[in-house]
Amino acid sequence: MSKVIRIGTRDSELALWQANTVASALNGLGVKTEIIAVKSEGDLVLDKPLYEMGITGIFTKTLDVAMLQGKVDIAVHSMKDVPTALPQGIVQAAVLKRSSAIDILLHKGNLSFLEEQEATVATGSLRRKAQWLHRYPKHNLVDLRGNVNTRMQKLQDNDWNAAVFASAGLDRIGKKPANSIDLDWMIPAPAQGAMVVVALADDEFTLQTLRSLNDFEAEMTTHIERQFLRTLEGGCSAPIGAYASYNEKEDTIRLQGVLLSLDGTEKYDYDKTVSIEEWKKLGFFAAKEILDNGGADLMQRLRSQLK
Ligand SMILES: NCc1[nH]cc(CCC(=O)O)c1CC(=O)O
Question: Where is the Porphobilinogen deaminase C-terminal domain (predicted)?
Answer without folding.
Answer: 223-291
